[in-house]
Amino acid sequence: MANAPAAASALALLQLLARHAEPMPAAAIARELQLPRSSTYHLLAVLADTGFVTHLSDERRWGLGVAAFELGTAYVRQAPLQRIARPVLSRLVEGTTHNAHLAVLHGRDVFYVIEERAPRRPSLVTDVGVRLPAAVTASGLALLAALPAQQVRALYPDRESFVQRNGLGPLSLTALNSELAQVRRRGYAVETGSVSIGFASVAVAALDHNGSPAAGIAVTYPAEDPPAAGPLVAAVRSAAADLSRRLGHRIPPPHPAE
């Protein structure tokens, strides 16, 4: 494990470049990583040799290289989120006997990547590949509630940003923030009739290793014949917690009593 510190520094350097929209000078990289300049230049040279970073000599800056792009596209090709989440959703469907689905946030929309159908349950509009306005879906509300307030404001800068469905859904940032506050207070999101008339959903966001919302897990059921709310919410919460753990999220330990 002698190379572990160097590997950790190399990964931290790549993550730093990934967080910045523009290439960075070596001095700024060294300062942000709190590394000696000699160590920073050594890491950059090694990563450049393997194609993970590239040196823009005219600008005297460093950016991500082709190998980093190839790694990112390989991640997408392998569909790891779907692979990781499918057994979680299968168990959720088995335990609740209702359809479940997984959605990710894409701008102001949610994009459905998994639908796990329960036996003898009807197909829903939330099929794989479908996009819907996030603010009218339980999954979207769960994901938006897990975002920083400034990010929500950036997504919904004006009234033209809001789209209703079936005549339902918020039409202003004030109304959306009120709904998101309820989601945070309850710990889960709900919707009734705004996606499909006659159906309702309960959703919870799964978090990634950075604590950011990675996907929304939801169960949909007939609104006229709802399951017991307590067990259903507990099942969805458990599934979201399971997926969060699989994605590397770790709940920090509570602070010791003063």
Automatic annotation (TrEMBL):
Keywords: DNA-binding, Signal, Transcription, Transcription regulation. Residues 67-249 form the IclR-ED domain. GO terms for biological process: negative regulation of DNA-templated transcription. Residues 1-21 form the signal peptide. GO terms for molecular function: DNA binding; DNA-binding transcription factor activity. Residues 4-66 form the HTH iclR-type domain. Pfam families: HTH_IclR, IclR_C. This is IclR family transcriptional regulator. It comes from Flexivirga endophytica.
